[in-house]
Amino acid sequence: MSYEQSLPGTLASIRGAQEWIRSVASASHPDLVKDAGEVVGELMAIAVRRTPKDGTIHLKATPSDKGLQVEIKDPGRLSEPDGTEWASVSTLVWSARCSGTSTGHLTEVEIRARQATPA
Question: φ and ψ at 99, to 5 degrees?
Fold first, then answer.
């Protein structure tokens, strides 16, 4: 089962997206609530910067046995990714992928529980 949400491309939508993903995570992977909120908040901030004033950002979350697959689509201009945008997210996701076309961006991440480091 997948969960979907569409939000306006505004700063106020970042908090709404975080609340939404936390509720999705709490139903399937309570251990991922905090990380999911952080990741979606960071990715939404990036998407909001790229989205025109009247644009809409679409989110999709699909729980799996291992974690959450999250997609964020925005209608922003095609641009080269800035590595600094990913710095805070890279430690919280298992995998990440971005693609862009003349009609917008798609960011996909997989969030999994962090593995304990052996002593």
Answer: -145, 155
